[in-house]
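Help!! Second protein's tokens look totally different from the first
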Amino acid sequence: MSDPKQHGQDEPISKSQRKRDVEARQDLGEELVNLSVDTLKKMNLPEDLFQAIRDCKRFTAHGAIKRQKQYIGKLMRDVDPEPIEKHLSVLKGESNEHNAWLHLLERWRERLLTDDAMLPTFLADFPGADVQLLRTLIRNARKEKLENKPPKSSRTLFQAMKEVIPEPGVPKRQNDSEDEEA
């Protein structure tokens, strides 16, 4: 006979552990209910879960909301929670990968604003960038800085770079036609 301690995966999960898992999934579902519909669309949730969350948002009666959140928790049992938790940690600013990506964007913006020779390097690394838009934003950002104006173009440059430089671990957005169907 083999020792049961060697086969940790074969041991049954305790009732208490199952209950903790169910409650954790319910809590995760509750966090999803608090997000905007646009944010939820970016998460690529299963359609039935997405619809249940949307339904919960429109309920006003306390009892109906409570039942719907329990139903969302039930649907969450069939969903891998790891990508959802990862996306939520990014939204909360707790993700090291996300923070590193933001720092990368900031470094690139500073390089582009201080050195004209960096634009060809940036374009070589990220060929999908709109060259004309970048040049305009860089020129305007430099002008704003010299005139001590608010850094509107610098912020717009940062946003444009966010579209070009992919965030690690985040799936690409679905095309807009699929978003409109939901």
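Here's the second one for comparison:
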Amino acid sequence: MTEHGTPRASLDLPAPAKLNRMLHITGRRADGYHELQTLFQFLDHGDTLRLALRQDGEISLTPDIAGVPHDQNLIVRAAHLLQSRHGGTLGADIHLEKHLPLGGGLGGGSSDAATALLGLATLWGLELSLEHLAELGLALGADVPVFVHGRAAWAEGVGERLTPVELDTPWFVVVHPGIEVATPTVFQAPELTRHTPPITMARALQGGAPDWRNDCEATVRLHYPPISTVLDWLARRAPTMLTGTGACVFARLADEQQADRLLTEIDGRWRAFKARGLNRSPLHDVLDR
């Protein structure tokens, strides 16, 4: 039985980006999915969802996203899933202010879905646990639970087995090379490294080479030369890595001033932004207020 509180009229909520501070592929399962070990961390940069209560049960989403049919958008799917599981008769008008690139490896779609789940549960007065919402989110995508729980995490399995961690919180410059990476292309590539020996979380948290690397990077470089160009350019200036399967690449900086100087060097060559690493999602900060 779902407990009900008081519905809210409207909410403005962040859907933050994530970085994979390291990503190892330790095996391939019989179902074709890959076993991973990764460290997730949030950024103080992302999309924004504006939710307004409707009484008629309808779910609307604006604006349309090119190439993504309305009913296949993860935000709409999250809303309908929450409605169907909890007998909801309320609806919502949802406006997405999109800042994160599609196919960028920043978790934009997963973060949007998680913000929709938590935001609509609040908007509709559903008193649901984070564990339950994360379980719903897993049906939408392997990365959704980390955004629901809202804590930097060590992740294993397909990325769904999460242990909260505390990571350093440097400044980053994130660069998008202007192309979109198809994740299936990367994971289906025959040359992809799939048998990295598993390491312990304690070893991963030490943060040293060669553990803090992304096993997808060599394959992405091969199939997407513009990303290889960005990786090489950034690596001459700061420690640099691909996030997820890309296309975004991030450089770790000591402080905001270094991040600003690097952005000046980029000078419009690629789309780029600076952000601070966060161990707690800004979505949870807003909901707690």
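Reply: Different proteins will give different token patterns, so don't panic. The radius of gyration is 19 Å.
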